[in-house]
Model the fold of this input.
Amino acid sequence: MIGDPITERYLILAFGIIVIIMLTLDLGVFNKESHKISSREALIWSIVWIALGLGFGWVVYRFLGPEAGTDYLTAYIIEKALSVDNLFVFILIFGYFKVPPEYQHKVLFWGIIGAIISRGIFIFSGVWLIQITYLPPINFFGHETHLNLVLTLFGFFLVYAGIKSFRKEEDSKTDFSKSIIVRLSHRYLKFSKNYDKGNFFTIENGKRLATPLFLVVIVIEATDVLFAVDSIPAIFAVTKDPYILYSSNIFAILGLRTLYFLLANFIKLFSFLHYGMALILTFIGFKMLLADFVHIPSVISLSVVGGILCISVIISLIINIRSKQLQQ
Done:
């Protein structure tokens, strides 16, 4: 983070304490017993997580300055928006493996724990790679540029991913048994066919077996790694500060579980949202590619990302309302 070193250390410490306390309360107190998450409970927790994420952003703004605060908020919104795609996949995974509603929160909780670790590895290793891959200065039409190999590759990848996402369609008949993760899991682990009250392991005929719930956690973790391939390069277009990137990223995904339970029954209403995600990825990719030639202020990036997200949600709702009116 850019600012006084002592302030930075206090903010990092505060971030770690907040995350640990909230995760402990989440699983150890409020969700100690497996139960189906109600819409009311999901709404309350969604508000809590969003308030914490935005509140920490205000702290960053207050102590590290407007630029750091804007970078945090932009990275937070980008990760939050791109994470919505995860919700579609969660629905497919839980439906395919027939996960009882009362156990879904536990799966997503441990999925988040894995994401906290993997995102840290991706972000901090990514910053290190960026630092060592700057090319020698070159003169481009009278303008001296310092191109970075990794950021250039990220930029092209995001533009490609954005264009490809325009044609993306969810397949409700996805056969997860054919995925390499599921096949490898069955090769190295023995699985029971019973969920056994939400346990990850059970004893059957004197043998210790993994339950289907453990397999679902493995699939969720693998899915998050795949989604991180899109979202992590995207936030590097905002800032190279690993602490701002990591804190905004983690606060964004911490509320993803409760957002799933809140929107699971309504997610199909946002049918136009993936076009918005495609535009966001494409915009960020071009921003990354043009960074050495055209400086786009963080405020403008935030406005573009937020505007695209809002417009895609509004269009989705309008299309769904009109489609229902035509059916009547």
User: Anything to note?
Assistant: The radius of gyration is 21 Å.
